[in-house]
Design a protein that fits this description.
Blueprint lengths: L11 H4 L8 H13 L4 E8 L9 H11 L7 H10 L5 H7 L9 E5 L5 E8 H4 L3 H15 L8 H14 L4 E3 L8 H15 L8 E4 L2 H7 L10 H10 L4 H13 L5 E3 L5 H6 L3 H4 L4 E4 L4 H12 L12 E4 L5 H14 L2 E2 L1 E3 L1 H4 L16 E9 L7 E2 L14 H11 L11
Parallel strand pairs: 4-5, 4-10, 6-7, 7-8, 8-9
Antiparallel strand pairs: 1-3, 1-11, 2-3, 11-12
Length: 424
Amino acid sequence: MLGGIMTHRSSGNEIIRDILENDVYDDSMCNGFRTLYPKAWGHYEFNDRDDTIYPPGYAGLLTEKVQDLKLVGSDPDKMKFFRNAWSFVPKCYFDWRETFKYNPELVKFRQDNEGHLHGTVIGPIEKGIFFETPLLAINSQTFNEENNWLPDDNWHEVLYQSIDRMKEARLQVAEFAMRRRAYNWMHDEATSILYKRGGSFKNGGIYVGASVPYHSYFSGLAPKGTVAHQWPMFHAAVFGIEWANQTANAAWRAVYGDNVATALMDTFTDEFFWATLTPELAHLFKSFRFDSGNMIRQLNLANCFLTHPSVGVDPTAVTLMPTDSLDEHEAIRLSKHIRNLGYKDAFGIGGHFTNNKDFFKKTPAYRPLRTVIKLVAVSLNEGETWLKTAKLSNTPGKYTGETNKIAEYLRHIQKHPFPFPFSG
């Protein structure tokens, strides 16, 4: 630890071991940006939602670890697996991807006088997009190492019991657990346990796969993930909030057609998404992802729109997928509700598998970090001029961006209420 004794301090390239140790939605979006907006730049900002006070010198330590990422390469076997699993992505993209190298000069961390951590990633989106998840994972593991926080010896047993309850409820679960994992070795073990104890969905089990290609390789199940908030945020900056959802959806479909056809609704609130979605496009989505707000209300809102006579989507053909801070108890509760509405259900579960406070019961001070890295501005001319953007949410505490831009977006979406009568 900084100024003390610790068991081990991992380097950046010990924490991130392969360029495919990253969230697959960054690959799907990067391919989209390279295809449609090849000169786009992004300005990303780090945000600690709990305003954590980090120890003196911590930003410098993170900076050293970011420099280590220059050493991270690609395992040919894992890249071959990824190519085959996502064969709908062009060969030219994978040819470029396997030569990818992190550019640490795009990343800056600093601390203020109180010790709060601030960070930015600024540069070409095709380079900067791949820093989000690794930086969050490095920060989480570093913070735990500096505090000498280790899981209880029986943390596997806690995970076993959770998986067994999911199996009993016959859930379908994807692992979305890298960004704020406690340690990479815990992530490795958790995905292995999920696959072995939970069983592959192909054989009647609960596990449908991981969001990280690096971990997907070991199960042989295709990486699971589609799109993140920065895709509609980018389109809001370029085309305006009025057309953000429409242009983002149209651009995504232009690149991927019927592949990775999951809608993420809450970037500017679910209500605004539904208010700007056409019935024709609603029929083209295979699944809908719920990432913030009161889940029961958001599920009911989706059902109200999709089953309205003017839209007419068949619930049995659609999957509803909650992904917001779930444990097995909440997933089981939501599963019952989704099935009662007549839809298929699936779940993306993250920190519960790799940074669960119940894994650290012998460490009363332990708490998982709540950190994000979000897009705040974009450039179409390699950084000469910038267009600001913001992310709203169904949960006000999750807003990101400058206050004026958030206020502008909030004023606009109020002009577009949910299009049908809804009582909750």
